[in-house]
Design brief:
OB fold (Dihydrolipoamide Acetyltransferase, E2P); six-stranded mixed β-sheet; Rossmann fold; 10 helices; alpha+beta; 371 residues; 2 domains; single chain
Length: 371
């Protein structure tokens, strides 16, 4: 059970922004925040890295627009964290280039790049207070004390941690530690924000809360952002676009809506959302226009239970998902899944099945959409 004090401490306030502290300019003057936003962005081309004799990153191309949040999504070992570390400058690339705000930073160390990184383990100094942790990167750059104090104060307001300014990291919750790491990154006013599995150490409830706050802060500050995750729900909920990685390459990059509705490969289709995969032979006569040996993908929301359909199936399982049920159906050698909002049919009962839109794949690639 989550402690109520922790829940209260992990709730962020709608604090003032760093940008809100900029002085007002005379009428007609250029807006520096607008000019800065227009100059930021990230471009990665032909990025490669071999580790232990294996091509961990095998040629990554990625363009992130100013103010856009892009997730690198994929299973463990697909190369997403290695890619992020090369973008940040903590790992040298074997080939390729990294450009930030139109400037080639490929050969620069992390301290010379206009980026800041939030690590998976937060990387906080346990002997320092929250304020000292957030101020650390400014102190190493010899930012004047008065400016450092003000920037730290505003950053802590932004993430809702002013009440913990003098606490040590060990005295606050995991969600609050994550927010300290985020404040330490944004206090640097980076052009590019990089986050490596920032929510993996939090419990399920906190992941949702902190995830939403990261998105809120990113959108309000307008920071170009890349986040690494293996959690599809996390990527789908906060990203402008998602790059799905597999074996060191980007399989597809698209908006969350496009990735779900039109996955370009079977790997992407199987990694994003719940799917049923059957052969074209099984669907012969119900979804014409495909080959019998094609692979056909069906989303649960495209499966309707109806008594008069010639396609018959037996209910093998019913999974309660809260306000709806996921019904698992067995039909010959195939397994289909359907979402039912009302009363679910009994396990073992027979029902008719009608299919809506199905995706047809040949040699692993999307070739046809059949309705």
């Amino acid at each position: 059970m989550t402690d109520t004090t922790t829940q209260k401490g992990d709730h962020m306030t709608d604090a003032p922004l760093l940008a809100d502290r900029a002085p007002r300019l005379p009428a007609g003057s250029p807006d520096p925040a607008h000019d800065r936003s227009a100059s930021t962005g990230l471009a990665v081309h032909g990025l490669r890295k071999t580790l232990g004799g294996r091509a961990v990153v095998a040629g990554i191309d990625l363009d992130v627009a100013p103010g856009e949040l892009v997730s690198l999504l994929g299973p463990s070992g697909c190369g997403k964290t290695t890619t992020l570390r090369m973008v940040a400058g903590f790992l040298d690339a074997d080939a390729g280039s990294v450009t930030m705000g139109g400037r080639d930073v490929t050969r620069l160390g992390p301290e010379r790049r206009p980026s800041a990184m939030v690590f998976q383990n937060y990387a906080l100094w346990p002997h320092m207070t929250v304020t000292q942790n957030v101020a650390f990167p400014l102190r190493t750059r010899r930012v004047p004390k008065a400016e450092t104090a003000e920037r730290v104060r505003v950053a802590l307001e932004l993430v809702g941690l002013t009440h913990h300014a003098h606490a040590k990291p060990t005295a606050i919750s995991g969600g609050e530690q994550q927010r300290v790491a985020l404040a330490r990154a944004v206090v640097q006013e980076p052009d590019v924000l990089l986050l490596d599995e920032p929510l993996s150490n939090l419990d399920a409830k906190l992941r949702v809360s902190v995830r939403d706050e990261i998105r809120r802060i990113q959108q309000r500050l307008g920071i170009t952002t890349v986040i690494v995750t293996h959690d599809q729900d996390e990527a789908l909920s906060i990203s402008d676009r998602i790059a799905v990685m597999h074996e060191g390459r980007v399989e597809q990059i698209a908006t969350p809506e496009t990735l779900y509705a039109r996955p370009s490969t079977l790997f992407v289709a199987g990694f994003i959302g719940v799917t049923s995969t059957v052969t074209g032979r099984f669907l012969a006569g119900t979804a014409a226009g495909h080959g019998s040996d094609d692979t056909v993908l069906v989303r649960p929301e495209q499966v309707t239970l109806c008594a008069d359909s010639p396609l018959r199936a037996t209910v093998s399982r019913v999974l309660v998902r809260g306000h709806f049920s996921e019904v698992v159906l067995a039909a010959d050698d195939a397994e289909l899944r359907a979402y039912v909002s009302g009363p679910a049919p009994a396990v073992g009962s027979e029902t008719g099945v009608r299919l809506g839109e199905v995706l047809v794949y040949r040699d692993g690639l999307l070739t046809e959409v059949v309705r």
